[in-house]
Hints:
mainly alpha; 9 helices; 75% helix; elongated
Amino acid sequence: MADIDAVAAELYGLRPEEFTAARDAHAAAARKAGRRAEAKHIAALRKPTLAVWAANRLARADADQAERLLELGEGLREAHRTLSGEELRGLSHQQHVVIAAMAGEARRLAGEAGQDLSAAVQREVEQILRSVLADPEAAGAWVRGVLAKAPPPAVGFADVAPEPGAAPRPPMANAEGERGTEPETEREPERESKPKADAREAERTRRQAELAEEALARAETERAQARTGLEALDEETGLLEMRLERAREERERLAAAAEAADGRHREAVRAVKAARAAARKAGGR
């Protein structure tokens, strides 16, 4: 298994267009050596998408940063478990900011490797990082830089949150219809329903606040990305305008050179005609 892990670590560090040929070569070498099970496992390794490759490269470039992101996810799950609204809102906001920054870093690292990421692929990287926080198996592969495919989109951390309106259940009645030694009264259900209603209302309010904070964090991230994209386009526009100006200047220079060449050509034609006429005249004497 160690050999397979080493091969996977090598393959998922390659650019996607290099993956298939290298995988097939490793599988062929394993088959030739008689390691059929290993060859079958290697051959089944899945070629990563560009976004998955970029996410893996990000984890490989800074293992400490990758671990900190996973710790942030643990903090979010704990905040959900304890219904710590203020902590949850702070961590949720931090999650969006950190993931946006990390996706931008993934784009930069991909560029260094000669692979440009579009804005759409960068958003895919963000989605992968969010999904990794909610999927321990995917997190383990990603932090090692060997994630094979994007995990299913994550929808918050509802799987670790307590049930809405959860409250202690009242004691069960005994066979004689009694609750302990006190007889059942008609007012007890009313007193018991109020804590449940209060708990449901508290949960609803907490969830609304959480969704509002997440929406705000997403809006801030989208605004930052839009501004970054606008700045990049402005810079690109400036470069294109400079190139256009240089092209116009070059055209003017070439046009002047062409006009001068036309003039010299006309002079040369006239000179040839004159020379030929002179030669004919001299020959007729």
